[in-house]
Specification:
homodimer, DGOK (chains A, B), alpha/beta, 6-stranded mixed beta sheet, 10 helices, about 300 residues, DGOK_C (chains A, B), DGOK_N (chains A, B)
Chain lengths: ~300, ~300
């Protein structure tokens, strides 16, 4: 019987922990607003102990962590493994805050046109997606502040690219001239406005010009104030999908992330004729299970 | 002898006034930090009187204004004239805060792929450029918060497009994750870093991905902190020029705007093999002179 596994998804703004079954399912999960930026230096072990109260007693589980906990601002800086990277590279790159007991999965780096790109946590989620959906290859799109699209094939994460979609939305929404014509709260998604923004950006040549449409349409009364955030959201997602130039042909396209955001991307992809499957945040637990299994299998 | 002319370039953040000679040159000019956003409702006449002290006595000059003074937040909202627009349309669209004495030049609107675009003030500057440089056609690139590229031919401003380049720079510079690795002050332009950012964005597919390079290059020590603002500036200008897809063939390309910014664009255009002429801010005075002459000529 394999050793018990506690999985930890420790990001910038939140901490998720779970007891993970042999099949990768969470037996029990908790989420806390204790992202790494809330943890004082030297305080990571204590925060983790508290989050996992009752789970760390004998027989001592393996605690496997992924995410920004492995960054310079985290518990222990873990060097990025290089793409293409499979389980071997992830296992070889594990860093151990507590040797034999607690490990952090390395993030990945790749190069796109000579420029480095990085991820921490998404590599685990992407491998988990393969296992959750029973795929041997996929294009995994992970929306968020810094959205990632990863390509997996031949047991490896071959490469990926980041788009600052969520962050650009927040900047334009809160700090730009466009914010002046937007309501204080986002409200529910207005689908026609979302798709209109999507189409304008997707058919355009870039964000610097396309974003100005949110201003001019409002100026001429062609965009209702309440619909502004939906339009802007469509604009940003449309720009990301334009930049990514996804084709219908290719490995299965899978969306994974928070529900509300994933639904918007699913709507956008369907509108653009790009069918996609979806997976939930539990993909991370499956990914940690798979990495733990690979680590066990590699032990002498 | 034509009536004396006082020109007013009244924007969001500054007010420039000049006594303009028959050849379009400024005989005397003043600049004040009295942009329209600093003027209380009903206060425009008084601010203008003070700025033009000594210039408005008999024989009463024509006072011709352009810029955001004609917007909803300005002195008098002037409807946009539609492109293509020549002097006839600008004269026909003049709005008169003081009939026969003080007029505001209408801004222009056009449509790009069904989406409206607008300018206020740049139409005057662009027509002025033709006169300053003795051209009968041109592509006039006006850098700034909302940069404009206008095409002029056959005596008309045929169309234009806005890119939110300056605003996007400010948002990324001040409010984004990139700001964390940038120094407090911009410092002098570091040309190699500027051109590196330019090349990355210009060869890329869009800003959401390209902007992340500022983070990853800094992360791997491939971009010096002090060079970050120059790199980011190159990135934004490179993205604008990528979106605009300017070709070397075509009407003369002219850069007009504030000196420091115009120099950056000139550097960028030369680097990309796009020769450009430059004109100074005085193009606005020439444009106001030309519009005043057209108005005089059209009087019964």
């Amino acid at each position: 019987m394999p050793r018990p596994l506690v999985g930890v998804d420790w990001g910038t703004s939140s901490l998720r922990v779970a007891r993970i079954a042999v099949d990768g399912q969470a037996l029990e999960a908790r989420e806390l607003p204790r992202g790494i930026l809330t943890v004082p230096a030297g305080g990571f072990a204590a925060v983790l102990q508290a989050a996992c109260a009752g789970w760390l007693d004998a027989p001592a589980p393996l605690v496997l962590m992924c995410g920004m906990v492995g960054s310079r601002q985290g518990w222990l800086e873990v060097p990025y493994a290089r793409c293409p990277a499979g389980f071997e590279a992830l296992v070889a790159g594990l860093a151990w805050p507590e040797p034999g007991r607690m490990a952090i999965v390395p993030g990945l780096r790749c190069e796109n046109a000579g420029v480095p790109d990085v991820m921490r946590g998404e590599e685990t989620k992407a491998f988990g997606v393969l296992r959750v959906l029973g795929l041997d290859q996929a294009r995994v799109l992970m929306p968020g502040t810094h959205a990632k699209l990863a390509t997996l094939a031949d047991g490896r994460l071959q490469g990926f690219a980041t788009c600052m979609t969520g962050e650009a939305y927040a900047l334009l929404r809160q700090h730009s001239i466009l914010a002046r014509t937007l309501p204080a709260q986002d409200g529910p998604l207005h689908e026609p406005a979302f798709l209109r923004g999507l189409d304008i950006a997707h058919a355009g040549r870039g964000l610097l010009h396309a974003a100005f449409s949110a201003r001019t349409l409002a100026l001429f009364g062609q965009l209702d104030e309440a619909q502004g955030p939906s339009f802007l959201s469509g604009l940003l997602i449309g720009e990301e999908l334009r930049e990514r130039a996804l084709q219908p042909a290719g490995p299965p396209l899978v969306l994974v992330g928070a529900d509300a955001l994933t639904r918007r991307y699913a709507l956008a992809l369907a509108h653009l004729g790009l069918p996609a499957q979806t997976a939930g945040q539990e993909a991370t637990w499956c990914g940690l299970r798979a990495i733990a299994d690979a680590w066990e299998a590699a032990r002498p």
